[in-house]
Specification:
By secondary structure, the protein is α/β, with parallel strands linked by helices. It has a single domain, classed as SGNH hydrolase (Rossmann fold), CATH 3.40.50. It has helices at 3-30, 48-51, 72-80, 130-145, 151-156, 159-182, 215-236, 278-292; strands at residues 41-46, 83-86, 118-122, 187-191, 240-242. The chain has a 5-stranded parallel β-sheet, with helices on both faces. Helix 3 packs across helix 8. It is globular and about 55 Å long. Residues 1-31 form the signal peptide. GO terms for molecular function: triacylglycerol lipase activity.
Protein backbone atom coordinates (compact mmCIF):
# COMPACT_ATOMS: atom_id res chain seq x y z
CA UNK A 1 0.00 0.00 0.00
CA UNK A 2 1.41 3.44 -0.92
CA UNK A 3 2.53 5.54 2.05
CA UNK A 4 -0.02 8.39 1.52
CA UNK A 5 -2.88 5.86 1.48
CA UNK A 6 -1.45 4.05 4.52
CA UNK A 7 -1.23 7.35 6.45
CA UNK A 8 -4.88 8.15 5.59
CA UNK A 9 -6.02 4.69 6.78
CA UNK A 10 -4.03 5.00 10.05
CA UNK A 11 -5.37 8.54 10.64
CA UNK A 12 -8.96 7.38 10.08
CA UNK A 13 -8.46 4.38 12.40
CA UNK A 14 -7.03 6.52 15.21
CA UNK A 15 -9.89 8.97 14.83
CA UNK A 16 -12.46 6.18 14.95
CA UNK A 17 -10.89 4.65 18.05
CA UNK A 18 -10.78 8.07 19.70
CA UNK A 19 -14.43 8.71 18.92
CA UNK A 20 -15.35 5.29 20.31
CA UNK A 21 -13.38 5.95 23.48
CA UNK A 22 -15.03 9.33 23.96
CA UNK A 23 -18.41 7.71 23.46
CA UNK A 24 -17.67 5.03 26.04
CA UNK A 25 -16.38 7.61 28.48
CA UNK A 26 -19.48 9.73 28.03
CA UNK A 27 -21.77 6.71 28.41
CA UNK A 28 -19.92 5.63 31.52
CA UNK A 29 -20.15 9.09 33.01
CA UNK A 30 -23.93 9.12 32.55
CA UNK A 31 -24.55 5.50 33.57
CA UNK A 32 -26.67 4.96 36.70
CA UNK A 33 -24.57 4.01 39.73
CA UNK A 34 -24.70 0.36 40.80
CA UNK A 35 -27.42 -0.27 43.33
CA UNK A 36 -26.19 -1.57 46.68
CA UNK A 37 -27.99 -4.61 48.07
CA UNK A 38 -30.43 -3.34 50.69
CA UNK A 39 -29.75 -4.37 54.26
CA UNK A 40 -32.14 -6.98 55.58
CA UNK A 41 -34.22 -5.92 58.55
CA UNK A 42 -34.04 -9.18 60.53
CA UNK A 43 -35.97 -10.07 63.70
CA UNK A 44 -35.17 -13.23 65.66
CA UNK A 45 -37.89 -14.72 67.85
CA UNK A 46 -38.06 -17.89 69.88
CA UNK A 47 -36.96 -19.92 72.87
CA UNK A 48 -33.63 -21.06 74.31
CA UNK A 49 -32.67 -22.95 71.13
CA UNK A 50 -32.94 -19.63 69.29
CA UNK A 51 -31.36 -17.68 72.13
CA UNK A 52 -28.40 -20.04 72.38
CA UNK A 53 -28.91 -20.30 76.13
CA UNK A 54 -25.77 -21.74 77.67
CA UNK A 55 -23.44 -20.53 74.93
CA UNK A 56 -20.97 -17.81 75.89
CA UNK A 57 -20.81 -14.84 75.70
CA UNK A 58 -24.14 -13.91 77.24
CA UNK A 59 -25.90 -10.79 76.01
CA UNK A 60 -25.85 -8.38 78.98
CA UNK A 61 -28.92 -6.54 77.68
CA UNK A 62 -31.23 -9.01 79.42
CA UNK A 63 -29.73 -11.68 81.65
CA UNK A 64 -33.14 -13.20 82.41
CA UNK A 65 -33.38 -14.45 78.82
CA UNK A 66 -29.90 -15.99 78.91
CA UNK A 67 -29.39 -14.94 75.31
CA UNK A 68 -26.03 -15.55 73.66
CA UNK A 69 -24.34 -13.18 71.24
CA UNK A 70 -23.10 -16.30 69.45
CA UNK A 71 -26.57 -17.75 68.83
CA UNK A 72 -27.74 -18.66 65.35
CA UNK A 73 -29.47 -15.30 64.74
CA UNK A 74 -26.18 -13.48 65.39
CA UNK A 75 -24.31 -15.87 63.10
CA UNK A 76 -26.86 -15.26 60.32
CA UNK A 77 -26.71 -11.49 60.82
CA UNK A 78 -22.90 -11.43 60.90
CA UNK A 79 -22.72 -13.49 57.70
CA UNK A 80 -25.37 -11.61 55.73
CA UNK A 81 -24.85 -8.11 57.11
CA UNK A 82 -28.48 -8.03 58.22
CA UNK A 83 -29.65 -5.52 60.82
CA UNK A 84 -30.63 -7.80 63.70
CA UNK A 85 -33.23 -7.27 66.40
CA UNK A 86 -32.85 -10.27 68.70
CA UNK A 87 -35.71 -10.82 71.17
CA UNK A 88 -35.16 -14.55 71.65
CA UNK A 89 -35.52 -15.65 75.25
CA UNK A 90 -34.76 -18.84 77.14
CA UNK A 91 -37.84 -20.77 78.33
CA UNK A 92 -40.13 -18.88 75.93
CA UNK A 93 -43.43 -20.45 74.89
CA UNK A 94 -45.65 -19.53 71.97
CA UNK A 95 -47.77 -17.52 74.44
CA UNK A 96 -44.78 -15.23 75.04
CA UNK A 97 -45.16 -13.91 71.51
CA UNK A 98 -48.13 -11.90 72.77
CA UNK A 99 -47.43 -11.50 76.50
CA UNK A 100 -44.54 -10.28 78.63
CA UNK A 101 -42.46 -13.32 79.59
CA UNK A 102 -40.72 -11.40 82.39
CA UNK A 103 -41.20 -7.92 83.85
CA UNK A 104 -39.58 -5.51 81.43
CA UNK A 105 -39.49 -8.08 78.61
CA UNK A 106 -41.96 -7.04 75.90
CA UNK A 107 -44.03 -9.59 73.96
CA UNK A 108 -41.82 -10.89 71.20
CA UNK A 109 -44.18 -9.89 68.40
CA UNK A 110 -43.72 -6.26 69.40
CA UNK A 111 -40.33 -6.36 67.66
CA UNK A 112 -41.98 -6.89 64.26
CA UNK A 113 -43.22 -4.27 61.83
CA UNK A 114 -44.17 -3.66 58.23
CA UNK A 115 -40.51 -3.03 57.40
CA UNK A 116 -39.34 -6.41 58.72
CA UNK A 117 -37.74 -8.43 55.90
CA UNK A 118 -36.75 -11.66 57.65
CA UNK A 119 -38.00 -13.52 60.73
CA UNK A 120 -36.57 -16.70 62.20
CA UNK A 121 -37.90 -18.63 65.17
CA UNK A 122 -37.58 -21.86 67.08
CA UNK A 123 -40.56 -22.30 69.38
CA UNK A 124 -42.93 -24.94 70.74
CA UNK A 125 -40.64 -27.14 72.81
CA UNK A 126 -41.60 -25.39 76.03
CA UNK A 127 -45.34 -25.45 75.40
CA UNK A 128 -46.85 -27.98 77.84
CA UNK A 129 -43.26 -28.19 79.22
CA UNK A 130 -42.80 -30.96 76.65
CA UNK A 131 -39.00 -30.97 76.60
CA UNK A 132 -38.33 -30.51 80.29
CA UNK A 133 -41.05 -32.94 81.38
CA UNK A 134 -40.05 -35.64 78.92
CA UNK A 135 -36.32 -35.37 79.63
CA UNK A 136 -36.82 -35.24 83.40
CA UNK A 137 -39.37 -38.05 83.52
CA UNK A 138 -37.42 -40.33 81.22
CA UNK A 139 -34.07 -39.53 82.83
CA UNK A 140 -35.40 -40.33 86.28
CA UNK A 141 -37.03 -43.52 85.06
CA UNK A 142 -33.81 -44.51 83.30
CA UNK A 143 -31.73 -44.16 86.46
CA UNK A 144 -34.22 -46.12 88.56
CA UNK A 145 -34.37 -48.92 85.97
CA UNK A 146 -30.61 -49.11 85.52
CA UNK A 147 -31.10 -48.37 81.83
CA UNK A 148 -33.29 -51.41 81.20
CA UNK A 149 -36.61 -51.59 79.41
CA UNK A 150 -38.81 -48.61 78.56
CA UNK A 151 -40.18 -47.38 81.90
CA UNK A 152 -40.89 -43.84 80.67
CA UNK A 153 -42.84 -45.05 77.67
CA UNK A 154 -44.66 -47.60 79.81
CA UNK A 155 -45.76 -44.92 82.26
CA UNK A 156 -46.49 -41.96 79.98
CA UNK A 157 -47.54 -43.67 76.77
CA UNK A 158 -48.94 -41.19 74.27
CA UNK A 159 -49.45 -38.35 76.77
CA UNK A 160 -46.63 -36.18 75.40
CA UNK A 161 -47.78 -36.76 71.82
CA UNK A 162 -51.37 -36.04 72.74
CA UNK A 163 -50.41 -32.66 74.22
CA UNK A 164 -48.34 -31.77 71.15
CA UNK A 165 -51.25 -32.49 68.84
CA UNK A 166 -54.00 -30.99 70.97
CA UNK A 167 -52.19 -27.91 72.28
CA UNK A 168 -48.78 -27.20 70.75
CA UNK A 169 -49.72 -27.60 67.10
CA UNK A 170 -52.64 -25.12 67.14
CA UNK A 171 -50.57 -22.73 69.30
CA UNK A 172 -47.78 -22.84 66.70
CA UNK A 173 -50.24 -21.97 63.93
CA UNK A 174 -51.63 -19.09 65.95
CA UNK A 175 -48.11 -17.81 66.72
CA UNK A 176 -47.09 -17.92 63.06
CA UNK A 177 -50.27 -16.17 61.99
CA UNK A 178 -49.42 -13.49 64.52
CA UNK A 179 -45.98 -13.12 62.96
CA UNK A 180 -47.55 -12.77 59.52
CA UNK A 181 -50.02 -10.14 60.75
CA UNK A 182 -47.27 -8.01 62.31
CA UNK A 183 -44.73 -8.49 59.51
CA UNK A 184 -46.77 -8.99 56.32
CA UNK A 185 -43.84 -8.52 53.95
CA UNK A 186 -41.31 -10.66 55.81
CA UNK A 187 -39.89 -14.01 54.87
CA UNK A 188 -40.55 -16.25 57.88
CA UNK A 189 -38.47 -19.31 58.72
CA UNK A 190 -39.64 -21.75 61.41
CA UNK A 191 -36.77 -23.97 62.49
CA UNK A 192 -37.16 -27.50 63.75
CA UNK A 193 -35.15 -28.82 66.68
CA UNK A 194 -31.90 -30.73 66.03
CA UNK A 195 -31.83 -34.29 67.35
CA UNK A 196 -31.23 -34.66 71.07
CA UNK A 197 -31.02 -38.46 71.15
CA UNK A 198 -29.70 -41.00 68.67
CA UNK A 199 -32.14 -43.27 66.87
CA UNK A 200 -31.25 -46.25 69.06
CA UNK A 201 -29.73 -46.66 72.50
CA UNK A 202 -25.98 -46.39 72.91
CA UNK A 203 -24.86 -48.05 76.18
CA UNK A 204 -21.80 -45.79 76.31
CA UNK A 205 -24.09 -42.75 76.47
CA UNK A 206 -25.95 -43.71 79.62
CA UNK A 207 -23.71 -41.59 81.85
CA UNK A 208 -24.43 -38.56 79.66
CA UNK A 209 -28.10 -39.23 78.89
CA UNK A 210 -29.38 -41.65 81.56
CA UNK A 211 -32.23 -43.04 79.49
CA UNK A 212 -33.45 -46.61 79.48
CA UNK A 213 -32.70 -48.39 76.21
CA UNK A 214 -36.36 -48.54 75.17
CA UNK A 215 -36.94 -44.89 76.01
CA UNK A 216 -34.27 -43.55 73.65
CA UNK A 217 -36.38 -44.16 70.51
CA UNK A 218 -39.47 -43.12 72.50
CA UNK A 219 -37.99 -39.68 73.20
CA UNK A 220 -36.77 -39.37 69.62
CA UNK A 221 -40.27 -40.10 68.35
CA UNK A 222 -41.70 -37.39 70.61
CA UNK A 223 -39.20 -34.90 69.20
CA UNK A 224 -40.04 -36.01 65.66
CA UNK A 225 -43.72 -35.38 66.39
CA UNK A 226 -42.95 -31.90 67.72
CA UNK A 227 -40.89 -31.08 64.63
CA UNK A 228 -43.69 -32.34 62.41
CA UNK A 229 -46.10 -30.02 64.22
CA UNK A 230 -43.72 -27.13 63.49
CA UNK A 231 -43.52 -28.21 59.84
CA UNK A 232 -47.28 -28.41 59.39
CA UNK A 233 -47.88 -25.08 61.12
CA UNK A 234 -45.23 -23.44 58.93
CA UNK A 235 -46.59 -24.84 55.69
CA UNK A 236 -50.16 -23.87 56.58
CA UNK A 237 -49.22 -20.26 57.36
CA UNK A 238 -46.88 -19.55 54.45
CA UNK A 239 -43.63 -19.87 56.42
CA UNK A 240 -40.55 -21.86 55.41
CA UNK A 241 -39.82 -24.91 57.54
CA UNK A 242 -36.11 -25.53 58.19
CA UNK A 243 -35.71 -29.26 58.68
CA UNK A 244 -32.76 -30.54 60.73
CA UNK A 245 -33.71 -34.22 60.74
CA UNK A 246 -31.02 -35.17 58.21
CA UNK A 247 -28.24 -32.66 58.85
CA UNK A 248 -28.26 -33.09 62.63
CA UNK A 249 -28.31 -36.89 62.53
CA UNK A 250 -25.12 -38.13 64.18
CA UNK A 251 -24.68 -34.86 66.09
CA UNK A 252 -26.92 -35.66 69.07
CA UNK A 253 -26.02 -35.35 72.74
CA UNK A 254 -24.43 -38.82 72.82
CA UNK A 255 -21.66 -37.80 70.43
CA UNK A 256 -18.20 -36.59 71.45
CA UNK A 257 -17.34 -32.91 71.92
CA UNK A 258 -16.57 -31.35 68.57
CA UNK A 259 -19.15 -33.58 66.88
CA UNK A 260 -22.26 -33.10 68.95
CA UNK A 261 -24.46 -30.07 68.45
CA UNK A 262 -26.46 -30.72 71.62
CA UNK A 263 -24.93 -30.95 75.07
CA UNK A 264 -25.90 -33.96 77.21
CA UNK A 265 -27.86 -33.95 80.45
CA UNK A 266 -24.79 -34.86 82.54
CA UNK A 267 -21.17 -33.74 82.11
CA UNK A 268 -22.20 -31.03 79.68
CA UNK A 269 -19.62 -28.55 78.39
CA UNK A 270 -22.20 -25.76 78.56
CA UNK A 271 -24.10 -23.79 81.17
CA UNK A 272 -27.41 -25.29 80.03
CA UNK A 273 -27.61 -29.05 79.32
CA UNK A 274 -29.71 -30.60 76.55
CA UNK A 275 -29.30 -27.43 74.46
CA UNK A 276 -27.22 -26.53 71.43
CA UNK A 277 -23.58 -25.67 72.01
CA UNK A 278 -21.68 -23.07 69.99
CA UNK A 279 -21.08 -25.56 67.18
CA UNK A 280 -24.77 -26.44 67.12
CA UNK A 281 -25.84 -22.80 66.92
CA UNK A 282 -23.38 -22.20 64.08
CA UNK A 283 -24.58 -25.25 62.15
CA UNK A 284 -28.20 -24.23 62.67
CA UNK A 285 -27.37 -20.84 61.20
CA UNK A 286 -25.55 -22.34 58.22
CA UNK A 287 -28.34 -24.76 57.37
CA UNK A 288 -30.96 -22.05 57.71
CA UNK A 289 -29.02 -19.81 55.33
CA UNK A 290 -28.71 -22.70 52.87
CA UNK A 291 -32.45 -23.34 52.96
CA UNK A 292 -33.28 -19.64 52.57
CA UNK A 293 -30.59 -19.00 49.95
CA UNK A 294 -28.86 -16.37 52.09
CA UNK A 295 -25.13 -15.62 52.01
Amino acid sequence: MPKPVLRRVMTATVAAVGTLALGLTDATAHAAPAQATPTLDYVALGDSYSAGSGVLPVDPANLLCLRSTANYPHVIADTTGARLTDVTCGAAQTADFTRAQYPGVAPQLDALGTGTDLVTLTIGGNDNSTFINAITACGTAGVLSGGKGSPCKDRHGTSFDDEIEANTYPALKEALLGVRARAPHARVAALGYPWITPATADPSCFLKLPLAAGDVPYLRAIQAHLNDAVRRAAEETGATYVDFSDVSDGHDACEAPGTRWIEPLLFAHSLVPVHPNALGERRMAEHTMDVLGLD
